Amino acid sequence: MLPLNEKYCTLTATKHAFSSKVDIEIDFGQETGYEKETEIVKEFTSIVDALNYLATKGWELASSYNTGRPMESWHILRRKA
User: Fold this and answer.
1) Pair 38, 19: CB distance under 8 Å
2) Which of 1, 51, 54, 58 has a CA between 20 and 30 Å from the CA of residue 38?
3) Alpha-carbon span 67 to 55, nearest angstrom
4) Cβ atoms of 8 and 74 closer than 8 Å
5) Mean pLDDT score of the chain, rounded to an integer?
6) pLDDT, tens digit, for every residue of 60-73?
């Protein structure tokens, strides 16, 4: 069971082959009650750019791992609810 005072999200990063571009997808989970994280509409130049942006919103990196798919990584972030 998750602590009630923390929220989590995932950041999925997919790098483009032969390019410096990276696709970032941020999943805040399902909407519950009246709480809903606003969708982020912003282009990021890198994984670090996206992580730094989320850090300004109170998120901190909890864990990172590769999915086994080439050029893709997942990052789990958390923040106080």
Assistant:
1) no
2) 1
3) 23
4) no
5) 84
6) 999 999 888 888 99
Residues paired with 8 in a beta bridge: 78
- H or E element, residue 76: strand 72-80
Per DSSP, 37 falls in state P
Could you tell me the pLDDT band of residue 79, with boundaries at 50, 70 and 90? very high
Tracing tokens 């990021």 back to the chain, one arrives at 44
Residues in the chain: 81
Question: What is the CA angle 66-72-75, rounded to 5?
Answer: 60
| Whether the Cβ atoms of residue 42 and residue 2 lie closer than 8 Å to each other | no
- Distance CA(49)–CA(33), nearest Å, equals 31
Write the CA distances from 66 to 1, 12, 25, 41, 58, integer angstroms. Answer: 25, 10, 15, 25, 24
- Structure tokens belonging to residue 6: 């923390």
Q: What is the DSSP string of 9-29?
A: EEEEEEEPTTSS-EEEEEE--
